[in-house]
Amino acid sequence: MFHTAVCDLLGIRYPILQGAMQGGGGVELVAAVCEAGGLGVLPTFGGTDQKLRADIEGVRSRTTRPFGVNIMPMGRGITERCAATCIELGIPVVTTGRADPGEAVVRRLKDAGIKVVSVIPTVEHARRMEGEGVDAVVASGTEAGGHVGTIATLPLVPQVVDAVKIPVLAAGGIGDARGFLAAFALGAQGIQMGTRFMATLESDLNDWGRNRLLEMRETDTIVTRAMTGATVRCMRTPEIAAYEEAVARGADTGELKELANRVRGSRYGEGKGDRRQSAAGQVAGLIREVVAVRDLIEGMLADAAKLAERLPSVAKR
Asked: What is the pTM of this model?
């Protein structure tokens, strides 16, 4: 009952995209999402071309189903290098995050037969990406983990749906059947989900991150520029809290740089106790167990179907 145009567009069974997550969504997770009927998406942020090629080979050794690669525009050289690798290796789907990669790159990907899905934070950005020729957009609310804008999912999604003619997926604050079904009520034709997939058996999230995720409340995320220079919603840590407190009291550039280096050092440290994965959405407050990807997807769809059957009776009351 949840088959939409997005399924046909991307060659998947269910309209569920896994958000690209560095440090939480590696090869095993991507392949598992694909095998369960969704679209797994590899991250490229902070990685080398050699790692991307190895990850692509790793996914292909585990599944024959379509998967995607996320290009995070962090400069023309990185964007073009990632795009060239995706074209060379015949990646079926590319998603873009933080900002679009530019019309020339979109055209190159499209000319190579690659479907392009852009994650956008505003209506204006959605219109621009449609004009550049992308196949679909993900309207990502500020509740989401990772790079975020300022508009919440509930008002953003229907406004984007009204503004463009291409398929729209919803992201931000979605982690169970209720959020999945709500996305359709807003006019979306599918969802992108990231944080909930971190609490799966196939995720490469480290021990600290997994334990932290299971105990988080809805108030335990924070939006900061300390991690990448752009606004990122992440798990609140002492290092990030110290940085944001310094910003609030008007600390000088030198102090902020030192505090940001501490944040990035804790994020990219090594060992089971480190805090290397800290991006997370507000939906973390709903997560209380680690499950297999297939059980997560199939359970969410089954619950959504049951919930949908109850809606008419609720509406009549």
From this structure: 0.91
